[in-house]
Specification:
The protein is an alpha/beta fold. It folds into 2 domains: 251 residues, Aldolase class I (TIM Barrel, Alpha-Beta Barrel); 66 residues, Type Iii Antifreeze Protein Isoform Hplc 12. The protein has an 8-stranded parallel beta sheet. Helix 6 links the parallel strand 6 and strand 7. The chain is elongated, with a radius of gyration of 30 Å. The termini are far apart.
Length: 335
């Protein structure tokens, strides 16, 4: 099955880049709009936010009070999201969001967003996974904190209902240390599930997403901010527009480098081929009737006569005419 996010097909050899805005708008719709504008300018395919009602996401008690208040402070209203969805459409960038509770999922569903991102925290929330799967839209599911067994169970819960599924390798550490990114796991996921695999990157590396693409990732999600100096939990570990653009260019370069898994001879190689390959030359004067041997010949550049590939075949053949030293040996010189 071909998986699409809006009108863009997700397939091997290409990349779908998501600028993860998250809550880096700091609760400001104006800042969120500018993030959409900048994400479009740097050629991200989509920008993704988090949609939640704080009361439906986190219990409020003495232990969680600080986090609860922070999440509430950085929350956007549903009306804000209506405006952002319309603004993203005008800007020509795909709007995505992670619903963090059932009410927010229902709101996003009503807004006809083309794809649902499921965060790592829902990996064992099978009731919620199945509810989203039944919406019959493309699903991007992050696998942070999950064991192989938990990944398989979450996959079964969704895939048995909705096959438009993309699995996102993810290390849920903020920031994720590069020595723990385990990017080879992308190829393992691809082999096991035969699905499009992505990488949700919480590291600060500009190279990790490009390497992930070389491992087979076709979707890349990376935290995005307008200013690393802004207050908030994710700004410091996010990429600003300049660095995000560098990351995208790195990915494009890798896709060009990877090629198609075949070995064509390119035009530049054809031009230089005869200059760098060797052929058989005399290394001393030879007379008619002399035997061609390693003593009276040498393999040298450029390739002008009999090629080096044929050297062993022609050893032992007789020269049919005299030749001076350091002249190319041609087929007509031998009997």
């Amino acid at each position: 099955m071909i998986v699409k996010i809006k009108d863009k097909k997700i397939k091997e050899g290409e990349s779908f880049i998501i600028a993860e805005a998250g809550i880096n708008h700091n609760g400001s719709i104006d800042l969120a709009m500018e993030m959409i504008r900048q994400a479009k300018l740097i050629n991200a395919d989509a920008i993704k936010f988090q949609t939640y009602r704080t009361e439906n996401l986190l219990i409020k008690n003495k232990k969680t009070k600080e986090l609860f208040n922070e999440l509430k402070k950085y929350k956007l209203s549903y009306d804000d999201f209506r405006k952002l969805i319309a603004f993203a459409k005008r800007e020509g960038i795909i709007f995505l969001s992670t619903p963090d509770d059932i009410e927010s999922f229902r709101f996003l569903y009503s807004m006809k967003i083309p794809c649902f991102k499921i965060g790592s925290g829902e990996i064992d929330n099978y009731y919620f996974l199945k509810m989203i799967a039944k919406a019959n839209r493309t699903i991007i599911m992050s696998l942070g904190t999950a064991s192989d067994d938990e990944i398989y169970k979450a996959y079964k819960a969704v895939y048995s209902i909705n096959k438009k599924l993309i699995l996102m390798h993810c290390i849920s550490a903020y920031p994720a240390p590069i020595e723990h990114l385990n990017l080879k796991y992308i190829a393992a996921l691809k082999k096991k599930y035969k699905l499009n695999i992505g990488f949700s990157d919480h590291s600060t590396s500009l190279l990790a997403p490009a390497i992930a693409v070389s491992m087979g990732a076709s979707v890349i999600e990376k935290h995005f901010t307008l200013d690393n100096g802004l207050k908030g939990p994710d700004h410091e570990m996010s990429l600003n527009p300049e660095n995000f653009s560098i990351m995208i260019n790195n990915i494009k370069d890798v896709l060009l480098m990877l090629g198609a898994g075949k070995k064509p001879i390119i035009k530049q190689e054809e031009l230089i081929k005869k200059e760098i390959r060797k052929s058989i030359y005399t290394n001393s004067e030879v007379k008619e009737g002399d035997i061609l041997s390693a003593d009276n010949t040498i393999l040298l550049r450029p390739q002008m006569g009999l090629t080096a590939a044929k050297y062993e075949y022609f050893i032992g053949k007789k020269f049919r005419k005299n030749k001076n030293a350091y002249k190319p040996v041609r087929a007509g010189d031998l009997t």
